[in-house]
Amino acid sequence: MSEPIQDLAQIDHCELLTPLPEESLRFFTDLFGMEIEYREGQSVFLRGWGEYQPYGLKLTEAGAAGVGHVSIRAWSPAALERRVEAVEALGLGRGWTDGDHGHGAAFEFTDPDGHPFEIFYEQERYVPPEHLRPRLKNVPQRHVDCGAAVKRFDHVNLLAADVTAVRRFAVEDLGFRLYEQVILDDGEETGAWMSLTIAAHELIYVADHAGASGRLHHLAWFVDTREELLRAADLFLDADVPIEAAPSKHAVAQGMFLYVYEPGGNRVEVTTGTHFIYAPDYETVVWSQAERARGQAWGVKTIDTFHTYGTPDLHGTVGPPIPPTSRIPTLDVHA
Amino acid sequence: MSEPIQDLAQIDHCELLTPLPEESLRFFTDLFGMEIEYREGQSVFLRGWGEYQPYGLKLTEAGAAGVGHVSIRAWSPAALERRVEAVEALGLGRGWTDGDHGHGAAFEFTDPDGHPFEIFYEQERYVPPEHLRPRLKNVPQRHVDCGAAVKRFDHVNLLAADVTAVRRFAVEDLGFRLYEQVILDDGEETGAWMSLTIAAHELIYVADHAGASGRLHHLAWFVDTREELLRAADLFLDADVPIEAAPSKHAVAQGMFLYVYEPGGNRVEVTTGTHFIYAPDYETVVWSQAERARGQAWGVKTIDTFHTYGTPDLHGTVGPPIPPTSRIPTLDVHA
Amino acid sequence: MSEPIQDLAQIDHCELLTPLPEESLRFFTDLFGMEIEYREGQSVFLRGWGEYQPYGLKLTEAGAAGVGHVSIRAWSPAALERRVEAVEALGLGRGWTDGDHGHGAAFEFTDPDGHPFEIFYEQERYVPPEHLRPRLKNVPQRHVDCGAAVKRFDHVNLLAADVTAVRRFAVEDLGFRLYEQVILDDGEETGAWMSLTIAAHELIYVADHAGASGRLHHLAWFVDTREELLRAADLFLDADVPIEAAPSKHAVAQGMFLYVYEPGGNRVEVTTGTHFIYAPDYETVVWSQAERARGQAWGVKTIDTFHTYGTPDLHGTVGPPIPPTSRIPTLDVHA
Amino acid sequence: MSEPIQDLAQIDHCELLTPLPEESLRFFTDLFGMEIEYREGQSVFLRGWGEYQPYGLKLTEAGAAGVGHVSIRAWSPAALERRVEAVEALGLGRGWTDGDHGHGAAFEFTDPDGHPFEIFYEQERYVPPEHLRPRLKNVPQRHVDCGAAVKRFDHVNLLAADVTAVRRFAVEDLGFRLYEQVILDDGEETGAWMSLTIAAHELIYVADHAGASGRLHHLAWFVDTREELLRAADLFLDADVPIEAAPSKHAVAQGMFLYVYEPGGNRVEVTTGTHFIYAPDYETVVWSQAERARGQAWGVKTIDTFHTYGTPDLHGTVGPPIPPTSRIPTLDVHA
Lengths: 335, 335, 335, 335
Hints:
The structure is a homotetramer.
Chain A (H helix, E strand, L loop, with lengths): L7 E11 L2 H11 L3 E6 L2 E5 L9 E5 L4 E9 L2 H13 L3 E5 L8 E5 L5 E5 L31 E9 L2 H12 L2 E7 L5 E7 L7 E5 L8 E7 L3 H13 L4 E7 L6 E6 L5 E6 L12 E4 H4 L11 H5 L27
Parallel strand pairs in A: 1-4, 5-8, 9-12, 10-17, 13-16
Antiparallel strand pairs in A: 1-5, 2-3, 3-4, 6-7, 7-8, 9-13, 10-11, 11-12, 14-15, 15-16
């Protein structure tokens, strides 16, 4: 038995692209309850109240929605070097940059599907400004009391034309652990749930049925409790946020989910769950086509867009593919 | 403005009919976590841990599933007399009985759709047996620690061929307050949510699209928190209980719901919520056809059976109309 | 058996006095998450998002903290007349006023301990302004997404020199139902928990050990879930709100509690719970001295101030009697 | 910067000693809701429903309460070898055993305070018996529906005469990450919270003020939600379990806690929380004497026994040091 690769510590942040930067920013601050940590050029750096790193989201104006890059932090300088070598050996490397706001030199590369990634080690410690100083010293920032008040970035779900290829890369070259998988009757692998830690997933790949490359399925943020997630649904309803999938529980990875669209058209999730994998030799759970056809944990079927839509949208549409959930007009009785 | 009728205090219990009495009993004890309070003839009297009355459910063997009767307690002997007079004046009375286990003389009648009801006042106080004695003196019984651990009977939802007729009877003759209503574009009233208290509903009528009479849509039991309701869904999944509607939130009356089938074929609900109506002049909320078409609070659409199935089943089927939710087989990896 | 009095529907609102009106207002808007519904003179009218009446709190500048008045709504004009007659017969009446913002003519009186009350029937219906319009038509106002986001006024707890006298008045003349009581070994009644509805309490009297009259113990606001209450504790901690009693569960009435001080010095509570009393002949639960000495439901003992402090403070102190809970300074490690 | 040690994967299980084995076993099965996985000699092997390993608790009859041993699983055979070498170099090794039920060869050693430990790699996969087979294939066992229904073993807290010595051993030789620490004004280190993963703690050492060696403060089991923890408190109250500390939130490590005594006299905790440390260079949070004196997160002070009692008890007492929480007798009204 070979030794496990344990060189990467966490997905530190993701860059999300939006054609409607002002509306998207308002969504993440007012409805997700995130703080603006920094602004630079066409980008705004945003953080959840429970993030120890400076930010978990870099929101950048762009011609189309999608993921800008996925940024992973290594365990040490030596660990970083080992991963750079592995990636370079595959010819996927793009070279070093001086880093970005809050972190040092980063090595850029793409996964086999073309999604941009970077890995780095050196990072500034987050220091909250006076008005955000917490009263408990082991909390990085004062609690956010507005909106969904997401705690921290949780995971990224990427669409890929060849899930097997990207999954192998993530596991064999980056060191992700493969916890769950979907394999259809014809042998096609259509989903892979992977993690660097005991958390049930940090990086997910699912099949892009459109056959496109480099697209995003969704980014997810964590809240501590299912009650907060249910409360978020009420807030989003009142705020006309398009809800794609109402709160329920995933069969795969057992997370509680709430999927909505931010104004730029990207799917984003509020998630929570305490399904931890401590075992060093956890045997990957493989779901069959028939099993997946049975819906989510309690039998809920996700709607079609969940299985077809990604960003950038292949039809060039700007904004969410479904109408807002302001489905139930206020009543005359109140007027 | 006329004085409100305040003669009836609560729906004390319901009688549920089942063609599979042993299986149904096991469901209510093992999965709903109810205690057997008494047995007599073909009936078993069951209670939730938080009920002050002796029992909230009388489960009775019968040729077909459905509701045996709905039993309402009056505020006082005089209040009982007033309601008896009102019902008799309509010709719906069936006369007095000596009562039943745990309560005194009751006046039997039917609503205009033919559902059997009774009203009474005298009732025995519940005294828990030694092994069920609680440690807090304001709790009627020791907490149940098994299954969904439902706290108390909450409401009954009856199907009716003519909702307007039964709603008028309940409001004008029994004194229920009408909190919410559904009226279609053609003026047909297809749903009425009514209560004797600040609770959002205790008696509900919805249209029986099959045009039958005297049928049951569902009985509902209360749990204190949404977390308990979500936990119940996990327990029911593992116990192969057929889940008709996974946990979500109703638009009408705002209750959190989980609908399943007990083995006898009756739909039963686990519910919770704190939508209270204190206002003495609350204006009935009227939902239109278009509004109802938009689904539940967060956009979830209930499946067809929810709108068509009732008990007794018109096709004479015994047992649940849908298969168990053991939809996701255990994995070979564990074997 | 006599007929129950069912003339009063709800405690509609309370007037709270504060010597620090600006600070108190900021507390109720920013930390409790209440909306300003109206301003007039030295008063601000505030509401929780789930209140059907226009407001549940009238906050008024005054020389000292305390309760301005308790305002109760009757079930009907005739019911109002009956209660006015009962109160006048006792010589406690102060006469009619033209009403106040949002409601019509009110009859003012005091309880035997001198606390000011009023009863009325006519009330304006609350119409949310455009920016607060909800998406679900049975919700009175858009969800508040900031602070503790209290839903509605829940109950008032008044200190009284002679609990038996005020309890008798409330039960026999106003029609409150007495659900729980504390009676010491020497026969002194030191607490009475009463309600107009199935809710576990709306009006509470506890003994004023200082022997003063007309003082306030606390006002309480409801949140839907225990999770929201726990979250409120985290928010209050970060906001330097003095926490008198951390979240736990009451033995009496079984409510979950969180007691803090608003800047004016009044004790206020965030509460939740679903202990409902449907029974028309519920036997009052009587707690003995020994039982009360055992602490709250899970054994927590409340601190001394909880049993001694009320408003107005007899020492003339302005503001909370205990220091803020910013007990745990932020750490240098973050600096 | 040196490379982090990442050789150990998880604290797999602990052995708990009890002088009252039958009573202790009934506590863990009936009240904690654990399943008996195996019996052998004077030991019973117990598991929470969410454990992937065969068991998390080995309960063994002994003359006195306390911890039998702490068992840690390595990431790989090579990782195991590295840790054995490190421990042997310190002269703390006791040698290899053939293993125990469910796992292979283990290396036994003690920490510098004399607590017995073992490390191993080879382990059998848990296969649920037919009646415990789950319906979701990524869950190890059917949900337990009784009692507190603890999900999995979470952490062990050991008393030590010299916290600095054991903390250094755990960090430098075993590879635990030090997340939080208490250092008094005189420089004495009195507490260390450590983990092998992103979980806030798996191994805790606190000062044994009695100066004894090898004693246990408590073992803790995880539940998914705070609601389950609050529900456990209600169940324990009704079951006369001695509650030492009612549900509240820790300042250190932010976990929600509920401390009780099992019949053998050992302190056990129900815990939950989602305070995760992903950062590879997390700076240890150091709490001062003054900060710790301020109580738990919301200001609650833990009672004296929490800071003085451990097992084995130095006075030779058998069973819990405090009386059961059946403090509030049932009421005559129910009798």
